[in-house]
Amino acid sequence: MSDGRDDRVGRERFRPPEHPNDHFLLTTVVGSYPKPAWLTDVRERHEADGTAVNDDEWSEALDDASRLIIGEHERAGLDVVCDGEMRREEMVEFFAERITGYEFKGPVKVWGHSYFDKPSVVSEVAYDDPWLLEEFEFSADVAQRPVKVPITGPYTLATWSFNEVYDDAAALAYALADLINEEIRHLVEAGARYIQIDEPALATTPDDYDVVGECLERIVAGLPDDVRLCLHVCYGDYGEIYPEINDYPIDEFDVELANGDYEQIDVFADGDFEPDLALGVVDAHTPDVEPVAEIEANIREGLHVVPPEKLTVSPDCGLKILPREAAYAKLENMARAARNVETDLDSGAIDAAALRAGRE
Ligand SMILES: [Zn+2]
């Protein structure tokens, strides 16, 4: 950690006052969550010509949906919550619409019959108004629990855009990383202490791990030490970016491994895993709800890599493609499984040191 962020940010500040166990496996989400059906309906009516839903009504609908999903996360028993990205439709578009220098030139075909409104960078990117401040302030005000803020990472924003200005995607990514640093400063000023950078693009082009590393250095520059920075990378060949990620200036690395039945967990089990591990323990791609006992076994996989005080429990990825009741049931089972594993750690029924040493 080259910039002085030497003290890993403790998770204790996120432990709820009524937490029942000595051990604390922080439970949270990656970010996105299924939208209520009515929200999609209201959005379509708001976007229609001769609109039947005006801007004030649309804004009220977004507030209501955010309030609803934060409540759902809290009811499921999560320690750190989020609004399920109710205000965001797509992870690149949302930011491109807010960053000076971007322009939309119409949808492009991405696969099969799917279209993606891939944005173009047509002039130097610049920071204008905050992107997420209202979202965070509303969430923090409504939530009883601490709120995590997911932000699409600069490398993903850069590689999933047309670049008409910068020499290459790396140069664009660095410029975007500086803007994200500015955005996080505003969020931190407003009280945010848990930021997650989403870099799904790194999963498909792992050779660029050094570009992402430089982006992260820019993102954390000058941030207070008590800001917890998580990096989420979706399913890919983690062996291509580990152990390199040990040099990243992050507090937590969030991975998708339930989907691959933990075949890759050994990649990390060299005893030197540096950041906290945020382990995906429920699959974000199948609506089948994992039973509590199965999730407990998944959590124990993480204890092969890090001690309990460095293990965070989350779904594999954002849950937005799932039916809402399946998403909720997974979160509820996940929170229950985490509490059960904590109880077993407290009692000694699970020997974390033995798991880590590969003796169990
Ligand atoms: Zn993901």
UniProtKB/TrEMBL annotation:
Keyword Zinc listed: yes
GO biological process, one term: methionine biosynthetic process
Location of the region described as Disordered in the Swiss-Prot/TrEMBL record: 1-20
Keywords of this entry: Metal-binding, Zinc
Ranges of residues in domain Cobalamin-independent methionine synthase MetE C-terminal/archaeal: 26-339
Protein name, as recorded: Methionine synthase
Cofactor(s) the protein requires to work: Zn(2+)
GO molecular-function term, one example from the UniProt record: 5-methyltetrahydropteroyltriglutamate-homocysteine S-methyltransferase activity
Top-level lineage group: Archaea
Source organism of the structure: Halarchaeum salinum
InterPro entries (UniProt xref): Met_Synth_C/arc (IPR002629), UROD/MetE-like_sf (IPR038071)
The keyword Metal-binding appears for this protein: yes
